[in-house]
């Protein structure tokens, strides 16, 4: 036990801090993307691969879920999309010799960066119980081992089936089918740690767990809020859409504790002005909010809109929309009228004038869109905050008409599609009925476990087998020590993966690695489909030669595992599904609403849009049949003296737990990741200085949690707040610190203290 990852990567001793950038993308971004790609895949493969990204006959970029749009440029990718592709298309390989040289124990002591840099997995590997080494295993034997362990369980609920968000619609649909046929709804997914709060809030208020805008809407909006999101790094192609909206006259308000480069200014490499010159100024207004202040901000803006309506009736509120399409307005209005400005100022750290000025923008805008990502979803009150954004939009009828609506910006490239395909621990009765109708078996009705509950189930011995369709569960989840111990207590852990990661090193007694094809790779003559952040479904076809002849597609892995578990008598034609993915899509067409005529429609270049009742018809399929106003209490998160509120973010050189490199160029950090960004005034107050080394300590009723050795960077973040990278800081977040309703770990508000380390 107490196996700890080292804290440093070779090469990060030379940590260098420069000044943060004020603009994102542009030529350096293109140059960086080509350099990383050359290093991983050589010049020829780079050029062949990158011309196919996001083209109508190419593959969907595995980077993020931002949509592609109709008018594609020849280079429809971004620096970070190119890095995501290079990670997958790399020429480096992890072979059986590698596993003979490196024991599991040793791998557990490597950094995430080192593990990822080893390259693509090439053949199925088995770590027998009691052994420290993975050894090669045939696919047949691997499936047999899993089937045996599953059959040995006392109940199907003792098995957990995780999904990360890169899995195609076809593989996801079959995977949930296998899991439910086996008899459980234990289908935790990365969404539980990501946009679950958005789904919870939007389903209750608008009747759909997704956004209600299209790319066209974004181009047409008069005012766009970008809240709790760093698109310059995480959704770079969104910057082009924002630029286009600006060309059409939109104003942009950025709400963030950090002055993120991409929000301030954008140099579009695909425009002449992006190569030389200053590029486009994106945000017209930057509200540097305190962490967790957003509920207060949106409530305050709504309050000011009510007051504007009092002063000039018929000017600030869309009465007709409120009366015809919404429910709960009166209760909500009463609550908002009682809002206390002192609380608002304390929670947001913003002046009343700043909020009032922003409301003038709102009053001047016919149509408003609010975009958000992890800055809103990973707090205790996340669901309430997003509901409050819905209230704010409903007030002026900013849902279900062109240029207006909610826009949760999704992370993984098919995380939204996976949920549409039924990867959900709380499936609707209608979905289960449709499965029964189509496949003739009774799926279980009791809800399954989400990500956090799955860890609890392992910890408490209620679950014994853990299967992951992609991702890196051990590194992505909170409370690292608790989670690692939970995982180690499993009888069997199985990872279907493309690249080596921590979840292959922190395993159950017995472990399997099942290597699979990535998006970029040829899957015989088959293609798969994905759904983007705006509900567009389209085909994705890989063209590269697979990293190894021994890889199977995710679809093939599910089908062969199913045949091994159920024998040939399950009444489900797994073999035909594997042979021809059209056969899977025919079933999806009959089970999942909106997919009628799937095979024909997905062959139309560009794909098709899924129905979206709020957007298409101003229809709100909620419990009341109307869009619901909701009352959400403002509880100011008060941080005790001497403490700061920490958010855990992504650097520019990482994809979740995959570390591409050790720089965070836009924030001026080079060659290192163990840094903490703190406001200079807070540093002065705490008696600390830029360049000092500290431990980050979070305090909880069950004891302290500590992340060691971080270099302080004096940085213009909001007062009282600080930031550091995940996964290094996951250790600070207890398993039980979760958002209400959505159960998402509170990765964006962790109270910590900084403890100076004795000089070395
Ligand atoms: N290159 C790259 N692309 C990615 C990913 C990646 O790791 N690398 N990950 C993908 C995934 S799965 C996801 S979910 C998305 C994540 O995309 P983001 O949500 O942009 O990712 P984070 O780095 O978590 O950034 C959170 C942002 O919210 C701000 N923020 C934090 N707390 C608050 C708050 O309380 N209020 C407000 N207003 N702002 C706050 C932070 O300062 C930061 O700018 O990106 C996807 N795309
Ligand atoms: N503290 C903190 N923790 C967080 C977050 C945070 O902001 N702060 N963000 C959370 C969020 S938003 C998310 S989405 C989760 C991410 O959680 P995960 O999705 O579980 O993690 P990833 O790092 O994206 O997974 C990377 C691994 O996926 C595998 N992989 C890549 N492509 C494929 C493929 O095509 N098929 C298969 N089968 N495997 C593939 C590779 O082996 C790679 O090592 O992390 C969450 N954790
Ligand atoms: Mo995510």
Automatic annotation (TrEMBL):
Record-linked Gene3D superfamilies: 3.40.50.740, Dimethylsulfoxide Reductase, domain 2 (3.40.228.10)
GO MF terms, alphabetically ordered: 4 iron, 4 sulfur cluster binding; formate dehydrogenase (NAD+) activity; molybdenum ion binding; molybdopterin cofactor binding
UniProt KW keywords: 4Fe-4S, Iron, Iron-sulfur, Metal-binding, Molybdenum, Oxidoreductase
Domain Molybdopterin oxidoreductase: 120-521
InterPro entries for the chain: Asp_de-COase-like_dom_sf (IPR009010), MopB_CT_YdeP (IPR037951), MoPterin_dinucl-bd_dom (IPR006657), Mopterin_OxRdtase (IPR006656), Mopterin_OxRdtse_a_bac (IPR010046), Prok_molybdopt-oxidoreductase (IPR050123), YdeP_MopB (IPR041953)
SUPFAM superfamilies: ADC-like, Formate dehydrogenase/DMSO reductase, domains 1-3
Coiled coil stretches, renumbered: none
Domain Molybdopterin dinucleotide-binding residue range list: 644-750
Pfam family, one: Molydop_binding
GO cellular component labels: membrane
Cofactor: Mo-bis(molybdopterin guanine dinucleotide); [4Fe-4S] cluster
Similarity field: Belongs to the prokaryotic molybdopterin-containing oxidoreductase family.
Name of the protein in question: Oxidoreductase alpha (Molybdopterin) subunit
């Amino acid at each position: 036990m107490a196996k700890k990852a080292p804290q440093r990567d070779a090469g990060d001793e030379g940590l260098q801090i420069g000044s943060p950038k004020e603009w994102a993308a542009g030529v350096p971004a293109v140059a960086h993307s080509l350099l990383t790609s050359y290093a991983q895949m050589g010049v020829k493969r780079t050029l062949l691969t990158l011309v196919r990204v996001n083209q109508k006959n190419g593959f969907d970029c595995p980077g993020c879920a931002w949509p592609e749009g109709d008018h594609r440029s020849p280079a429809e990718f971004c620096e970070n999309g190119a890095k995501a592709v290079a990670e997958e298309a790399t020429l480096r390989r992890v072979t059986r010799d590698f596993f003979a040289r490196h024991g599991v124990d040793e791998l557990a002591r490597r950094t995430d960066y080192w593990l990822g840099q080893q390259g693509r997995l090439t053949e199925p590997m088995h770590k027998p119980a009691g052994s420290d080494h993975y050894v090669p295993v045939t696919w047949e034997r691997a499936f047999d081992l899993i089937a045996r362990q599953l059959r040995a369980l006392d109940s199907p609920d003792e098995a957990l089936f995780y999904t990360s968000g890169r899995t195609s619609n076809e593989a996801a649909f079959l995977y949930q089918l296998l899991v439910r046929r086996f008899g459980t709804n234990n289908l935790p997914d990365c969404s539980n740690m990501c946009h679950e709060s958005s789904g919870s809030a939007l389903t209750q208020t608008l009747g759909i767990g997704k956004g209600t805008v299209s790319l066209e809407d974004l181009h047409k909006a008069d005012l766009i809020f970008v809240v709790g999101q760093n698109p310059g790094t995480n959704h770079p192609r969104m910057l082009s859409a924002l630029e286009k909206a600006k060309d059409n006259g939109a104003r942009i308000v950025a709400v963030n504790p950090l002055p993120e480069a991409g929000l301030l200014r954008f140099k579009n490499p695909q425009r002449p002005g992006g190569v030389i010159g200053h590029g486009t100024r994106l945000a017209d207004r930057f509200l540097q909010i305190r962490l967790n202040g957003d509920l207060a901000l949106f409530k305050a803006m709504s309050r000011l809109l009510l007051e504007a309506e009092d002063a000039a009736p018929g000017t600030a509120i869309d009465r007709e929309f409120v009366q015809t399409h919404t429910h709960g307005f009166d209760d909500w209005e009463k609550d908002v009228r009682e809002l206390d400005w002192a609380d608002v100022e304390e929670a947001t750290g913003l002046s009343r004038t700043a909020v009032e000025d922003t409301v003038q923008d709102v009053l001047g805008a016919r149509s408003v869109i609010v975009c958000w990502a992890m800055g809103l979803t990973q707090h205790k009150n996340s669901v309430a905050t997003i509901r409050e954004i819905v209230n704010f939009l409903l007030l002026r009828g900013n849902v279900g008409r062109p240029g207006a609506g909610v826009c949760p910006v999704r992370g993984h490239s098919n995380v939204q599609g996976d949920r549409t395909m039924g990867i959900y621990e709380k499936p609707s009765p209608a979905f289960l009925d449709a499965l029964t109708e189509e496949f003739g078996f009774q799926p279980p009705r009791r809800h399954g476990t989400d990500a956090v509950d799955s860890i609890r189930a392992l910890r408490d011995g209620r679950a014994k087998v853990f299967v992951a369709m992609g991702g890196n569960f051990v590194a992505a989840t909170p409370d690292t020590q608790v989670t690692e111990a939970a995982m180690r207590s499993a009888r069997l852990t199985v990872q279907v993966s493309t690249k080596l990661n921590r979840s292959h090193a922190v395993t159950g007694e017995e472990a399997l690695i099942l290597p699979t094809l990535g998006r970029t790779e040829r899957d015989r003559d088959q293609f798969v489909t994905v759904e983007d952040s705006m509900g567009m479904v389209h085909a994705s076809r890989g063209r590269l030669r697979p990293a190894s002849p021994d890889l199977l597609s995710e679809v093939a892995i599910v089908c062969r595992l199913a045949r091994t578990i159920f024998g040939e008598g399950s009444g489900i034609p797994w073999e035909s599904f594997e042979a021809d993915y059209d056969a899977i899509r025919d079933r999806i067409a009959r089970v999942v609403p909106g997919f009628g005529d799937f095979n024909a429609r997905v062959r139309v270049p560009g794909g098709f849009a899924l129905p979206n009742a709020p957007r298409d018809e101003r229809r709100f399929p909620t419990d009341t049949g109307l869009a619901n106003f909701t009352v959400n209490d403002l509880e100011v998160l008060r941080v005790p003296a001497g403490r700061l509120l920490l958010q855990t973010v992504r650097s520019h050189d990482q994809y979740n737990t995959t570390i591409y490199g050790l720089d965070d160029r836009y924030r001026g950090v080079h060659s290192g990741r163990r840094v903490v960004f703190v406001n200079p005034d807070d540093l002065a107050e705490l008696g600390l200085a830029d360049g000092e080394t500290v431990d980050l300590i979070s305090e909880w009723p069950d004891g302290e949690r500590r992340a060691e050795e971080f270099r302080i960077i004096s940085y213009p973040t909001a007062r009282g707040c600080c930031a550091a990278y995940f996964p290094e800081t996951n250790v600070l977040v207890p398993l039980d610190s979760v958002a209400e309703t959505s159960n998402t770990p509170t990765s964006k508000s962790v109270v910590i203290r900084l403890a100076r380390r004795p000089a070395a």
